[in-house]
């Protein structure tokens, strides 16, 4: 356990984003192996055997997702979700800027697995630098015969294009991303049908996160069986954790899954800023329920440990809050985020997120009452559990309610004192 | 003269066409081309996009898309568009002091542009650089680990270039 590099081994090389460098460290060998020695079924099985779970947030088994693609004559599309927008999350940006060829290689292998001949890399629009780097890498790969018609003379065709998002968190939700790619507002779609059956242009589509694709060449190189030996039984592999907030050394750390959170915070990240005390941890991006310091100290960085604490490993974004953090303020900022990013399709989300934000604002400025707290809880019950098309409203609830429950005192001391009239 | 894509945008537009089986997918990239040409997206430009892409894309649809996404400026912005992240990680790192400092130096509030049209300040949602907060995006570039002093130095340097 602890630090272990698989994806980020060559992060220190200044030219890690170039084809030359990537090839010099064995890059594109897995693509060759997949295209020459393996059938589509073997690739899917190898990824299934590896136990790889999606690195975007939901943690769905990648091989299974690929296995859902029906065998039809319709075109099949492969999309990379690089819309990284969950507050606290900043790990895909590193992969995009430093290892674009690893991403491309992973996508070509995945394309063969699902018989896709057209892929898109959707990157959030703010990542101008990353978009430019990936575009250049795609061009390099085309010139080297690693993309396009008859890849490496091996008879497989795969075209790949880069698409820029335009500033909408919701487009990280795969069906909203698909709508965005189709030139529409980023509204999530009602499911079913799932993208595997009817996605981009109503055709079978697989959407995977950047980090997920980047794992694929390594799985093919070392075989799924060997890959599965890294990490824990149910959470194989490494993960890029993006640590921010009150730690001495915030940043992106690739660690073996199952590493104790304590080790991540105190050894790898150097402990709490200003030698303060830990108050809480948001373990997997802003929509994952907050953990108290005590809970955090028992957790290990894998899906099942964090889930047993009723939270989520999510996008791998670990936000550290020391004793000095004002949780009323941070919770308000998160509610503000969700109200800003609600796409507006569903009433419980469109209205609910705004109410929650406004009520938290009232509490924050000392104007809130016990009734406002009750109202937040009452509203939150109408915003979760399938009342909306996508989980954005649920995410808002998860970012707010556990904090208000676990750190009740911090909110109640901010409430306006009720004036009692004595007779 | 009526708006049309600049030479550079036209070249990019032609490269985009074969990438998508549906013309509708060209709307978002086209809005970026329009913004690169004009600095913001306006009715005339959106009509031009609808006409260039053609049926079934209407002005109403292009307008609907443009207003959904925050990166399309619906009105002109200053030559330096300063977008400061105010979300959780940047807040914990002290982003409020950056916003306050920049606003008081420029004498404007978030969402406003200075009268000389040089600076626009916006407070934005997460920029995805949370470990390096406070973060600001100025035009296309990220500036990280900001302090009130460093942002002031950055702005005075950039001001010389516009």
From TrEMBL, chain A:
Domain of life the protein comes from: Bacteria
Gene3D superfamilies listed in its UniProt record: 3.10.20.600, 6.10.250.1450, NADH-ubiquinone oxidoreductase 51kDa subunit, NADH-ubiquinone oxidoreductase 51kDa subunit, iron-sulphur binding domain
First-level EC class: translocase
Keyword Glycoprotein: no
Cofactor annotation: FMN; [4Fe-4S] cluster
PROSITE patterns: COMPLEX1_51K_1, COMPLEX1_51K_2
Record GO terms (molecular function): 4 iron, 4 sulfur cluster binding; FMN binding; metal ion binding; NAD binding; NADH dehydrogenase (ubiquinone) activity; oxidoreductase activity; quinone binding
Ranges where the NADH-ubiquinone oxidoreductase 51kDa subunit iron-sulphur binding domain occurs: 328-373
Annotated function: NDH-1 shuttles electrons from NADH, via FMN and iron-sulfur (Fe-S) centers, to quinones in the respiratory chain.
UniProt record similarity statement: Belongs to the complex I 51 kDa subunit family.
Record's protein name: NADH-quinone oxidoreductase subunit F
Protein species of origin: Leptospira bandrabouensis
Automatic annotation (TrEMBL), chain B:
Gene Ontology cellular component terms for the protein in this record: catalytic complex; membrane protein complex; organelle envelope; organelle membrane
UniProt cross-references to PROSITE patterns, sorted A to Z: COMPLEX1_24K (PS01099)
Keyword Translocase: yes
GO molecular function: 2 iron, 2 sulfur cluster binding; active transmembrane transporter activity; inorganic cation transmembrane transporter activity; metal ion binding; monoatomic cation transmembrane transporter activity; NADH dehydrogenase activity
UniProt superkingdom: Bacteria
Residues holding [2Fe-2S] cluster: 85, 90, 126, 130
Stated name of the protein: NAD(P)H-dependent oxidoreductase subunit E
Organism: Leptospira bandrabouensis
């Amino acid at each position: 356990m602890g630090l272990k590099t698989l994806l980020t081994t060559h992060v220190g090389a200044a030219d890690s984003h170039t084809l030359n460098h990537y090839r010099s460290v064995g890059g594109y060998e897995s693509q060759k192996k997949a295209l020459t020695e393996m059938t589509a079924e073997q690739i899917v099985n190898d990824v299934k055997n590896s136990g790889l779970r999606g690195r975007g947030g939901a943690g769905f088994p990648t091989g299974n997702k690929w296995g859902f693609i029906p065998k039809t004559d319709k075109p099949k599309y492969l999309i990379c979700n690089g819309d990284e927008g969950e507050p606290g999350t900043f790990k895909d940006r590193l992969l995009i800027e430093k290892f674009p060829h690893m991403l491309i290689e992973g996508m070509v292998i995945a394309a063969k697995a699902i018989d896709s001949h057209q892929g898109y890399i959707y990157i959030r629009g703010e990542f101008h630098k990353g978009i430019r780097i990936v575009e250049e890498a795609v061009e390099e790969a085309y010139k080297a015969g690693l993309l396009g018609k008859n890849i490496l003379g091996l008879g497989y065709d795969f075209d790949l294009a880069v698409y820029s998002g335009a500033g909408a968190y919701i487009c990280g939700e795969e069906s909203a991303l698909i709508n965005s790619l189709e030139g529409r507002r980023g509204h999530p779609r009602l499911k079913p049908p799932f993208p595997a059956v009817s996605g981009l242009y109503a055709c079978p589509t697989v959407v995977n996160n950047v980090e997920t694709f980047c794992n694929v060449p390594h799985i093919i190189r070392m075989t799924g069986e060997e890959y599965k030996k890294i990490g824990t039984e149910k959470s194989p592999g490494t993960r890029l954790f993006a640590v921010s907030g009150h730690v001495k050394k915030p940043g992106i750390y690739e660690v073996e899954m199952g590493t104790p959170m304590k080790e991540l915070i105190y050894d790898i990240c150097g402990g709490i800023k200003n030698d303060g005390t830990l108050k809480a941890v948001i373990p997997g991006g802003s929509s994952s329920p907050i953990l108290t310091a005590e809970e955090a100290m028992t957790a290990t960085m894998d899906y099942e440990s964090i889930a047993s604490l009723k939270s989520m490993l999510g996008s791998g974004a670990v936000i550290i809050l020391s004793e000095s953090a004002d949780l009323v303020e941070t919770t308000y900022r998160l509610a503000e985020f969700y109200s800003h990013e609600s796409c507006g399709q569903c009433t419980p989300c469109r209205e609910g997120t705004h109410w929650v934000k406004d009520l938290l604002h009232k509490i924050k400025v000392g104007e809130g009452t016990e009734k406002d707290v009750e109202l937040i809880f009452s509203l939150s019950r109408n915003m979760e559990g399938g009342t909306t098309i996508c989980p954005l409203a649920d995410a808002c609830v998860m970012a707010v309610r556990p904090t208000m429950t676990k750190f009740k005192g911090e909110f109640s001391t901010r409430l306006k004192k009720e004036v009692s009239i004595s007779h | 003269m009526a708006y049309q894509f600049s030479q550079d945008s036209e070249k990019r537009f032609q490269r985009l066409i074969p990438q998508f089986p549906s013309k509708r997918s060209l709307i978002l990239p086209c809005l970026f081309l329009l913004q690169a040409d004009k600095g913001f997206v306006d009715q005339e430009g959106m009509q031009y996009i609808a006409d260039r892409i053609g049926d079934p894309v209407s002005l109403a649809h292009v307008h609907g898309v443009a207003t959904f996404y925050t990166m399309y400026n619906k009105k002109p912005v200053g030559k330096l568009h300063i977008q400061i992240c105010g979300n959780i990680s940047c807040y914990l790192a002290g982003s409020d002091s950056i916003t306050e400092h920049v606003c008081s130096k420029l004498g404007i509030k978030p969402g406003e542009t200075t009268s000389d049209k040089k600076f626009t300040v916006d407070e934005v949602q997460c920029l995805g650089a949370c470990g390096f907060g406070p973060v600001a995006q100025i035009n296309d570039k990220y500036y990280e680990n900001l302090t009130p002093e460093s942002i002031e130095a950055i702005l005075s340097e950039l001001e010389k270039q516009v």
